[in-house]
Amino acid sequence: MIESVASLSLYLQSAGALGIGIFFIAFVTGTLLFLPAALLTALSGWLFGVTGGTLMALLGGITSSVLAFGLARSRLFPFASRAAAKSRYLKRGLTLAQHNGTVLVLLLRLSSVVPFALLNYGLGASGMSFRKYLAATVPGLIPGTFVYTGAGAAVSDVNALFRGDFSPLEFMQDTSVQTGAALAALGMVLLYLLQRCIRKKMGI
Contact, 136 vs 106, CB < 8 A? Predict the structure, then answer.
């Protein structure tokens, strides 16, 4: 598996703009088809490093979010509205999304308690304002994207360590490894706190 990803990394990096375009299309398509966004984001960090991977995954994530929202808004909203009339919990969720959508979306993005694609389609079907959706989605995606790309870049560094490309001391001093570890620990704490906030806000 690692050798396959390493070969893919070499190909995409050597392909230049074409490689970037291929990965971007694969990222957007994959997330629209419910592939785990966290895995693709980490792969972005593996392939392009923390900075390049974050920019790539963030752009792909925003694009996928907008496309999924638009598709659901045009196709699924009528069905969601009819279903809400029969379900008290669904009606409450739609009301929260429509009237307090910015805060709700921001919390859900930061906490990652709902799978990426499911959240995008669900919010589109809720009928909430696209302006509020986008205003919360962009800043909400940045922290998690940075964490996962940092983790992917750190895994890439671990692979290099196993190959003997640099020493354990250099590995421990590597800023991407330190950043990835620190953000992972901080992310776990924030995830717990945000999950509590969401449960409280939704009355769970």
Answer: yes
